[in-house]
Amino acid sequence: MCGIIIAHDISVAGTMSLSSILSADAIDSALKDCQAPDSFNPKKFFQLCGLTKKSPQDVKNVFNILDNDASGFIEEEELKFFLQRFSPGARVLTDKETKAFLSAADDDSDGKIGADAEFLGRCGIVDKPSKNWPLTANGEVDPALKALEARQDEVLKRLYELKATIDGLAKTVTTPDADLDATTLSRGPAESVFKGTADLDSLLGKDLGALRDIVINANPACPPLSLLVLHSLLCQRYQVLSSVHVHSSVSSVPPPLLSCLGPRHKDSYARQCFQLGFTLIWKDVPKLEMKFNTQSMCPIEGEANVARFLFRLLGAEPQDPVAATQMDCWIDTAVFQLAEGGSKERAAVLRSLNAALGRSPWLLGEEFSLADIVSACCVLRAGQSTSAPANVQRWLKSCQNLGHFDFVYPLLQ
Asked: Are residues 309 and 323 in the same domain?
């Protein structure tokens, strides 16, 4: 009983001193907020009582009032009566609250809270240092130490960039199936016809420090025109590092195929500056094949399937199931009947295209889509652009005007 009376007597003296620093209303508001057992939150309490807005010296004065035995530290036993130091009628902290308070503010794990960075940091007056850094007279971390930490962060950043560059050089040397690096390229950003907001992290998951590499093996006798268009669109959405290689199975490659992805980028050596790698390898293969992060994904075969994958990276797929199905139907029709079919099949597809394009500017209505990209490229590859019906010719001109087919037309000559 005597111990409780003594604690209350000390609290009365402490309250008078605290009232000269903190307003009575603020103290009352803070105490009411944590009346229920296990509801005490140190950070919120200091905010409500106004201590977070006080100077470091005022906070130290409060600490001295709370330091019951004037030891220079607040021990766990003193923390139990923490609220009573603000008002004699306040409750005692529970064991759970006391231990949580001590754990949050005891940076050096010595079982007590010091008057330096530990208490100042808990009150929000200074940032809690990650180590027991010395403070200046006004309670702030020494500026020289802050500068040292900033320099360390800069060194770590430069080391990360160096590692990314070295990894990039290693990948360039070991690019699958490539014997000759014809050129390393990248196209600058431009306004895209697709307004989606998807990014690679949301589509593929985060992969910190790694450049996501797309590697495509294609036969130069049948250039994948639709993939060149999609490459142009990807360059408008992301920072793309593009490379053209030639495999030893190919004796010669026409110059336009070596520059089909655009001019060389001045920062091509700094892979850490890019989000996506796009490598095109001209190789004597029976069917186009794409590898993406080869260790975690099986190859994708066929231009249409690769085109679908690349289009998904744009985040522009139709959300309507009917429109998505129509898009797939047009793609399959263009590939299997227009590009690979006979003259009768081609004529039938051109009639279907002409009818659809007589009702809307694009194959899926008002929006340009993958169906337009693949179908237009198949018409161009089949050599039907000049003899196609009027609506198809108008549509091809609209596709060309978008600018995404700039690297396609030189390959048709």
From this structure: no
